[in-house]
Amino acid sequence: MKILIDARLYGLENAGLGRYLINLISSLQKLDKKNKYVIILRKKYFNELNLNSNFKKVLFDKGHYSFSEQFKFPAIVRKENPDLIHYPHFNVSIFSNKPFMVTIHDLLMHKQKGKEATTLPMPIYLFKRIFYKFIFNFAIKKSVKIIVPSNYVKKEILDYYHISEDKISVCYEGVSFNEEHNQDPSAFLKKNKIKSPYLLYVGNAYPHKNLKKAIKAISSLQKKRKINFVIVSARSVFFERLNKFIENNNYSDFVKVLSFVPDSDLMILYKKSEGFLYPSISEGFGLQGLEAMTQKTPCVVSNIEAFKEIYKDNAIYFDPADIKSISSAIERLFGFDISQREEIVAKAYKFAKNYSWDKMAKQILKIYEDSFSLR
Fold it and tell me: pTM to 2 decimals?
């Protein structure tokens, strides 16, 4: 069997999608020596990535969500002639006539709309939204299989689309961290001017991440106790908007914003934080909370369905719409004594080990092979 994977979003700079591809491809190389793979990459990782002999790299240095990818990607498909294509994101090629499966990580863009959700002029935004809905609908209806990271996302798709429940497979993502870091933790914190105690957030700065409310909640606690907030987020227009919000409201004395941080240093930030704060109003999975658990860091998170499914009773929950609820949850975290905290993080650490990239890849490999045999 020959499987083509569109891995143009490979790399940690592409946030969750990049990490998903890194670990999927790495695990498939360990698990599968029989099938052939064609991995579509952009220039950076085409040059850097070394693959097993049954994995072939193909360069396609075109960006996502563009007309050029729609018209040029099918030429690669025709040349490589795969039995199955796996798109790890909804932007499938509508002109390729090969069977495909798609991973849908969330339906956020179905719900987030309007000028707060875009940096584009409104006419261009509306045009792109129509194109997005068309491509997304095509991916849902024409795919042979849909992979989702949680039952919550599966339910959302079934609420939006009239398709068979059997078409959707839930494959929980994994969590992994190298156990070594590059430098002395104290020196790293000092160099980046990070003061303890601090709460940590890791992720992008999109509006649905609800960071402004989280900052206001921490601000409301400053008279009771000094709490700093470290935000690690990739640079974007939303990153700049968040920085302006922090400056304009005089929150800079307790909020520190960092751009991209490599995993080895990210481990230090998790380990040394008082807790991981995840205030999102919508998510499909919630990988960062599991990362925090592997570093024995307690989690304070929104009480949204996806988080409750993934973290179960291993987090402190709050209502993300209510600043007082967020601040109360933070106060509860700081109220734990040493033995309570040790008990909580030990339990969560053990729980997070249930999530494995190899386990996810085994499920996906079976889906590949089942889809092929059914045909």
Answer: 0.90
